[in-house]
């Protein structure tokens, strides 16, 4: 990318007379596009993500001040980068103000004052820098919530206020998570570098965990009227796409992206006219987003073509693909789903996965067979408080004609559920089952 | 939210200048890597297509070329957070033409694709 200043006399792209806040919105849009690369480049020079993020923010503030007067420059990305770099260089030249910023820039940068070299250094290896930034923001020394906040802040360009609204916490809490994350990275001396191949795979799983957590936050909130939270699904998918470009050789990256795209493809069908949840078998599949389905299928093919054993995300994407391929619920390839679950329970021995497998078995071999599997899972006691265990049990009893047991199980599920839409669904099922003449 | 950006332009007299396609590919790769561009393709001259029209209750099919002065050239679908972000990508794309192809004129229509966010259920 070019980093030249706007040429004198060049026409600003947006009219300088900014009465409607249009420039402000344009600045925000450019920020969203550029902030990740900007912070990543600055982090490489400073070696400190926290300082890099501060400097990038300074460039944003400068843009918000100047562009409404001057208009958006012809090369806004270059302007932001140049401004941030100038600030970075100024910071370590200001010996009277020789704080942490200057210290971390290192001996050479300070004494040599070879500004051009510093600027050039930041233009190389953009690809690796963004990956480093992502790995650092998702570093295991950070708490999960700090990782999430820092990732959304540095890689998705979200403001503290947007992060706060998305996670239903006060703005001060979100700000604190980011500050704490930056401090932890500095205090623990986390290097802004790429780990070796062995550590990389472990670090990647932390990144994938953060991305999927962001997605699920949004997914679980899709019945609300505030689209800040469901928008998290899109943020997560964009992060997934970014990641797929950065580490295309890692099947789980494509698997996770495909999984998210399959799940998001159902969003338009997932909420009924009065805001109620519509479950998979009852969804109007014509509403599914075909573009996302197609991309999901392509991503899954890519994951499978890399010739490595499939991990939990790819396997879940494989299961989601079986649903996506079925134009009617009755066409679902349950045999394939059960066989994928058989592998998934081995690579990811979780009782929830085993429960989902039992439900899949019920569609392949009938409700009695499914119930048998389910009770095996339930016997461990680990899902006693999990509402979906009871709801699944209720459904299997209902399909087997045992309405009283079914109603009881749904009532238990409603009792345990903390999700309003789920609770309403479970309560309705319990009431309907009790009202059915037996 | 998704936008489809449809490029229309005057039928050029000669081939595009050297470096334009390269620059377009570069920008496309960047937009794809950032997760913003999720679909794109070039569009053949309208002579290869047709228009199916309903007027005065009558359906008619007419082979191309269309009467419009500008031809469709390409389209791209962007998944972005705001209209301004889509406009920014479209502006970068158009700027490549300004910088490399004197005399060329065209328009990128930035059109929102309806999405779930347009149909948020009542609270």
Automatic annotation (TrEMBL), chain A:
Residue ranges occupied by any RNA polymerase sigma factor 70 region 4 type domain in the UniProt entry: 133-185
Species per Swiss-Prot/TrEMBL record: Knoellia subterranea KCTC 19937
Region (Disordered): 1-21
A Gene Ontology BP annotation from the UniProt entry: DNA-templated transcription initiation
Swiss-Prot/TrEMBL keywords: Sigma factor, TPR repeat, Transcription, Transcription regulation
Signal peptide residue numbers: none
Family: Belongs to the sigma-70 factor family. ECF subfamily.
InterPro entries for the chain: DUF6596 (IPR046531), RNA_pol_sigma70_r2 (IPR007627), RNA_pol_sigma70_r4_t2 (IPR013249), RNA_pol_sigma_r2 (IPR013325), RNA_pol_sigma_r3/r4-like (IPR013324), TPR-like_helical_dom_sf (IPR011990), TPR_rpt (IPR019734), WH-like_DNA-bd_sf (IPR036388)
UniProt name for this protein: RNA polymerase subunit sigma-24
MF terms in GO: DNA binding; sigma factor activity
PROSITE patterns listed in its UniProt record: TPR
Residue intervals of the RNA polymerase sigma-70 region domain: 38-96
TPR repeat residue intervals: 387-420
DUF6596 domain location: 203-303
Superkingdom, taxonomy of origin: Bacteria
UniProtKB/TrEMBL annotation, chain B:
Domain of life: Bacteria
Secretion signal, residue range per the UniProt entry: none
Cited Pfam families: YCII
InterPro entries xrefs: Dimeric_a/b-barrel, YCII
YCII-related domain: residues covered: 1-92
Similarity section: Belongs to the YciI family.
Name of the protein this chain belongs to: YCII-related domain-containing protein
Originating species: Knoellia subterranea KCTC 19937
